[in-house]
Design a protein that fits this description.
This protein is α/β, with parallel strands linked by helices. About 30% of the residues lie in helices and about 20% in strands. It is built from 13 helices and 22 strands. The chain is globular.
Length: about 475
């Protein structure tokens, strides 16, 4: 059951549509490197398309009818969007569910320290990473700092031209003989994934020097020239960093306690290859599926069944917490939605969830001929051959898997063929090599039909991941076909 490479089949109009989608996608990926940024961009796009905040609808006591579009956000890191369908919600929804968190490096709560006149931020990696991949590359800091007075400061450092960047250092090859003997998993230890942020000590003047400096209106510490720091002072580089944080971000050291700062690769999403057929970007697992799901949702305006785009957090660490798919956010929001439609009851909510159909929009592993031993060629995903359906995920003996039933997969096949969508099927590598999971099993617990469907990715969980523009295009079209498919 070979699948064709779609690049040779596209018309000029399709190629234009594909390239326009890819450009919009790259802009999204450049602007949205954290969950909060993804939600912010999704809200912007949703409001431009006429979606209203469900909270406003509830506060005004308004009702919803077929064709109305609303969204709900929880803790600024997860959201659900709905277009009310012509059929009652009790008949079920068509749900596109993706996650918007990605592997990264997080700051610890007490992160700032100095060692041998170099200042660092102490980090804790988030999600599954190859630690050595995060050394010796330019990194940026994204996130928020919550102050005690209730204010929230947004921070992005390392993305604009002229911004400084940061890095995790690595041992030079000349001294790395013992390091090179270690297995890859031990070559860089987690506790050594600390971010280098400064090396310049602050200049501490004595009282007479300070008075002189004030008299001469000297404000820049660089103008102090060859003045020597006090011999009794310590952590002068750290103090310099703290001074900069105070001047530029009104941030004290204790503010780290209530900060949510993520260290991510610096730089924009880019075309990859002489032919510009691919996209290179951080965080495509799983924002490539999140963006294409959102774009498909916004393009389908008069659905028979209520359409939903669910964007969740925390998938990379088990979908836990108040913003993960295991929380009751989606169920609670569905209840609020039914109430605004005048049809809520606990029984009807249960019927709605059980009758719903879902695509767990998550990425799959693209076949890499340089590492062919990890794949089974007949059951692998390939660049340019369309969206990938994974009937089951999990590891080895399907542990931790959602295994879609045959009837649902048959319905999906018909929906894709009717929509003239290119699709392929795959497993995540050889049976005993590894595996992975998605949010599919969580939604399946309601009794709904769920199957994984997403874009094939090279370098998954690396600081730079690679996708095919053809697969991005086919995924968006597949999600639209799913939302509009007939029973």
């Amino acid at each position: 059951m070979n699948r064709d490479n779609q690049w040779v089949k596209y018309s000029d109009s399709q190629l234009k549509e594909l390239n326009d989608l890819a450009e919009n996608y790259k802009r999204f990926m450049t602007a949205a490197k954290t969950e909060r940024e993804c939600v912010r961009e999704a809200v912007r796009l949703a409001e431009e398309a006429g979606c209203r905040n469900l909270e406003d609808v509830i506060a005004k006591g308004e009702s919803l009818k077929a064709g109305d579009r609303v969204y709900a956000v929880w803790m600024k890191k997860t959201m659900a969007l709905f277009t009310i369908g012509r059929l009652p919600l009790e008949k079920g929804m068509r749900i596109l569910g993706a996650h918007i968190d990605s592997p990264r490096l997080d700051l610890k709560q007490n992160p700032l320290y100095e060692d041998t006149e170099m200042a660092y931020l102490d980090l804790h990696y988030y999600g599954g990473i190859k630690k050595y991949q995060w050394t010796a590359i330019p990194l940026a800091i994204h996130g928020v700092v919550a102050k005690k007075d209730g204010s929230l400061a947004e921070i992005v450092i390392g993305e604009k031209e002229g911004d400084p960047v940061f890095c995790v250092t690595d041992l030079l090859i000349h001294l790395a003989a013992k390091q090179m003997e270690k297995p890859l998993s031990k070559g860089v230890e987690g506790e050594n994934l600390d971010l280098l942020i400064g090396s310049r000590p602050i200049v501490i003047k004595n009282d007479s020097e300070q008075a002189c400096a004030e008299k001469e209106n000297v404000s820049d510490s660089a103008d102090a020239g060859d003045k020597k720091a006090s011999a009794s002072a310590s952590d002068l580089v750290k103090k310099m960093v703290l001074q900069i944080l105070k001047e530029h971000y009104d941030m004290e050291e204790e503010d780290f306690l209530s900060a949510e700062l993520e260290v991510v690769p610096a730089g924009a999403a880019r075309d990859l290859g002489f032919d510009r057929s691919m996209v290179a970007a951080y965080g495509q697992d799983d924002r490539v599926c999140a963006y294409t799901s959102l774009d498909a949702f916004l393009k389908v305006r008069d659905p028979e069944y209520t359409s939903c785009c669910l964007l969740t957090d925390k998938e990379e660490i088990g979908s836990v917490g108040a913003t993960g798919a295991c929380s009751h956010f989606f169920e609670n929001t569905a209840a609020e939605l039914m109430n605004c439609c005048g049809s809520f009851s606990e029984l009807k909510l249960r019927r709605c969830l059980a009758a719903s159909r879902m695509l767990s929009s998550d990425v799959s592993a693209a076949y890499d001929p340089l590492y062919a031993e990890a794949y089974e060629k007949r059951n692998s995903a390939y660049f340019g051959r369309g969206i990938v359906f994974n009937k089951y995920t999990g590891a080895r003996g399907k542990s931790g898997s959602n295994d879609a039933n045959a009837e649902y997969v048959g319905w999906i096949r018909r929906a894709m063929d009717d929509g003239k969508v290119a699709f392929q099927t795959a497993e995540l590598g050889r049976v005993d090599v590894g595996g992975g999971g998605t949010i599919a099993y969580i939604s399946a617990a309601y009794g709904m039909n769920v199957v994984d469907a997403g874009v094939a990715v090279l370098n998954m969980h690396a600081p730079m991941e690679v996708t095919s523009k053809a697969d991005i295009y086919e995924a968006r079209n597949a999600y639209m076909a799913f939302l509009t498919a007939q029973e």
